[in-house]
Amino acid sequence: MGNQQLGKDQIRELQMDTKQKLSKKDIEKYHKFWFELIPNGQMTRETFPKFAQYAMPNAPSDAQLDYLFRAMDKDGNGTITFKEFLIFQSITAPSNTSLNPEELIDLAFAMYDEDGDGYVSKEGLSFFKFFLQRLTHF
Predict the structure, then answer these.
(1) Which long-range contacts (CB under 8 A, 24 or more apart) does 54-62 make?
(2) By the 8 A CB rule, do 101 and 64 touch?
(3) What SS3 state is found at 43?
(4) Long-range contacts of range 14-21, CB-CB < 8 Å, 24 or more positions apart?
(5) The model scores a pTM over 0.90
(6) pLDDT tens, per residue, the chain with 138 residues
(7) Residue 125 in contact with residue 112, Cβ under 8 Å?
């Protein structure tokens, strides 16, 4: 996918991946942003705080950044790809379409289930509540 222009087929595939929640223009805007900030296209835990500071002027605490990284790293391999970033954006970014509560809950749960065992710790639960409250205020 690189930082070159996206082809029609790539955009169509990304729209399918994001359940048609992002327009061609949105995808192109995010693509430009992503590859200007992360030229190699692979964001790691080490580069994530830089991204968070740039993308979110009131960036959350380190603990919350860790939860946020896990939510965006859909496959859990320790890197966030452009596609994973877009999927996260399609769920959390303000839009004209209604937010799907089930997707939000699944996303938030994945963020706070630290070891993937199907349970959320007490500390994770307080962050989980905070995350859901922020998302539902859009």
Answers:
(1) none
(2) no
(3) strand
(4) 14/83, 14/86, 17/83, 17/86, 17/87, 18/86, 18/87, 18/89, 18/90, 19/90, 21/90, 21/91, 21/95, 21/97
(5) no
(6) 555 789 999 999 999 888 888 889 999 999 999 999 899 999 999 999 888 888 777 766 776 788 788 888 888 899 999 999 998 888 777 666 666 778 767 766 766 676 778 887 777 777 666 666 655 543
(7) yes
Secondary structure letter of residue 58 according to DSSP: T
| Cα–Cα distance measured from residue 7 to residue 40, given in angstroms and rounded to the nearest whole number | 19
Number of H helices, E strands in the chain: 7, 2
The topology under which CATH files domain 8-135 is Recoverin; domain 1 (1.10.238)
Domain parsing of the chain, residue ranges: 8-135
Residue 110, classified by CB atoms within 10 Å of its CB into exposed (0-12), middle (13-18) or buried (19+), is middle
